[in-house]
DNA sequence: ATAGGGCCTACAGCAGGTAGAGGTTCAAGG
DNA sequence: CCTTGAACCTCTACCTGCTGTAGGCCCTAT
């Protein structure tokens, strides 16, 4: 039996985050001590590690929920898990592509700026006037 | 004089977002019609375009606030604007690097999976056991 | 028996918006 | 001039994925 602090330390997850996962139904409600404190089994530790590792790979919580469901029913076909992972891969690739476009634009902006005063600052000029941009970065940030 | 809808259409910003920018002090409070509707000047349109463009380049709102302040005082040195842009460039490069590590891991995961059932699914296996990973992706998502 | 760490609930807040309810205003067509 | 209906108004709640705080209990070692 582990306390919440033990799970926290072993998985590198903040205590509040574990309670949050319980609240949104990602972690099961554990048993309690006579005084009302949470007491976890080994299986809960594994589940939390799975969640954390998936988060580190950028999976959104909804996807993790699906992955956990799949993981709980070993006889189902693997294709679903596969497609979730592929979807995540696509998302990551999309974000990389967008960020690379941003990087290019930012680099150009910074490189061009050699004025002294704000009045002739290329950085601000480019921000003021979209038409100075080479790429169409219509998608925001991310 | 423009309505909020005109600003919205011209900059591709949702009406609510413009009101939100006003609320957090990024846009100044415009004049109102006799019936209480917002009426904007050309300068407001420019300012909003600046904000949107900066957001598209991934600048956080705080940075944009600084950039707008700088832009309003043309005699100050350009170095500050420069360093904000450089900081943003570093952030973007960091995020690209992290996402590339994720991509690598996800690709490997997806490529290795050729099992039929969940029981032997490499995707789930890797998620279960961090030690199967090549890289140390301790930073979460982003 | 007591000290002090760890645990409890509940709520507020972060970025950066988005969505909806319920009500008013504006401008064009009849 | 009047009506219609799109566009505007405020207010509030919600989104993701947590994190922090307040105020109070539990648990275990000494």
- Share of residues in strands of chain A: under 5%
Assembly context of the chains: homodimer
CATH class of the largest domain in chain A: Mainly Alpha
Question: What series of H and E elements makes up the topology of chain A?
Answer: HHEEHHHH
Number of domains of chain A: 2
Q: Helix- and strand-based class of chain A?
A: mainly alpha
**Low-confidence parts of chain A:** none
CATH architecture of the largest domain in chain A: Orthogonal Bundle
Major interchain interface with per-chain residue totals:
A-B, 59 and 58 residues
Structural summary, described in words:
The structure is a homodimer of 142-residue chains. Chain A folds into two domains: 4-59, Multidrug-efflux Transporter Regulator, Chain: A, Domain 2; 79-132. Chain A has helices at 4-11, 15-23, 42-56, 61-72, 79-112, 122-128, and strands at residues 31-32, 38-39. In chain A, a hairpin with a 5-residue loop joins strand 1 (31-32) and strand 2. Chain A has a two-stranded antiparallel ribbon. The longest helix of chain A is centred in the C-terminal third of the chain and has 34 residues, at 79-112. The radius of gyration of chain A is 23 Å and the shape is elongated. By secondary structure, the first copy, chain A, is mainly α. Chain A is built from six helices and two strands. In chain A, 60% of the residues lie in helices and 3% in strands. Chains A and B meet through helix 3, helix 4, helix 5 and helix 6 of A and helix 3, helix 4, helix 5 and helix 6 of B. The structure holds a DNA duplex (30 and 30 nucleotides).
